[in-house]
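About this split. The held-out portion is used to measure sequence recovery: a designer receives only the C-alpha cells and must propose an amino acid at every position. Recovery is the fraction of positions where the proposal matches the reference. Here is one held-out target exactly as it appears in the evaluation file.
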C-alpha cells in the first residue's frame, strides 16, 4: 500500500453546498436565506439570548445574592480519606494527588471533618474545618495551614 492509495472511508466526507449558483442547484437566487428580513442581510442576525424584543429569560428570572467571579474554589477532602496514609506521614496536596484522593488541585484543598481519622498525620492544606482540626489533633497529628 502506498500513500496515494489512501482514501477516506466512504460516507465520511461530503461536498460542500455551493450557494447562490443558479436555480438548478436548489440554492440559487436567495441562497437559502428566504426573502428579505434581518436574517437575509449580510451581517444580519441577533445576539445570543435575544428574544425578539421580549424580555429575555436571563433578565426575567429573579437574581439573589452575590457571585464572585474572581473566587478560587477549593477542593474538599474528608478526614476519613486521610487514613490511606502511613502513620506519621506528612500529607500535602502533592501527596493527596499521588494517592488518588484528588484528581486535580487548582487552587488548594480544604479538609472537612466527615468520618474519623485513626493515624497520627501532619496535614498541610489551604483550610480546615473546625471539626477536621479537632479530629486530626485528637489523633495526635497536626493541622497546618499553608
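Reference sequence for scoring:
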Amino acid at each position: 500500500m502506498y500513500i496515494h492509495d489512501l482514501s477516506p472511508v466512504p460516507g465520511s466526507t461530503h461536498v460542500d453546498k455551493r450557494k447562490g449558483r443558479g436555480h438548478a442547484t436548489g440554492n440559487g437566487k436567495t441562497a437559502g436565506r428566504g426573502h428579505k428580513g434581518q436574517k437575509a442581510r449580510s451581517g444580519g442576525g441577533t445576539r445570543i439570548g435575544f428574544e425578539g424584543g421580549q424580555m429575555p429569560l436571563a433578565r426575567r428570572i429573579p437574581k439573589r445574592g452575590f457571585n464572585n467571579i474572581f473566587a478560587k474554589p477549593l477542593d474538599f477532602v474528608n478526614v476519613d480519606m486521610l487514613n490511606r496514609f502511613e502513620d506519621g506521614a506528612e500529607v500535602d496536596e502533592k501527596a493527596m494527588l499521588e494517592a488518588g484522593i484528588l484528581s486535580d488541585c487548582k487552587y488548594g484543598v480544604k479538609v472537612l471533618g466527615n468520618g474519623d481519622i485513626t493515624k497520627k498525620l501532619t496535614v498541610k492544606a489551604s483550610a480546615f474545618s473546625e471539626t477536621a482540626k479537632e479530629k486530626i489533633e485528637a489523633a495526635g497529628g497536626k493541622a497546618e495551614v499553608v
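Annotator remark: The longest strand covers residues 75-78.
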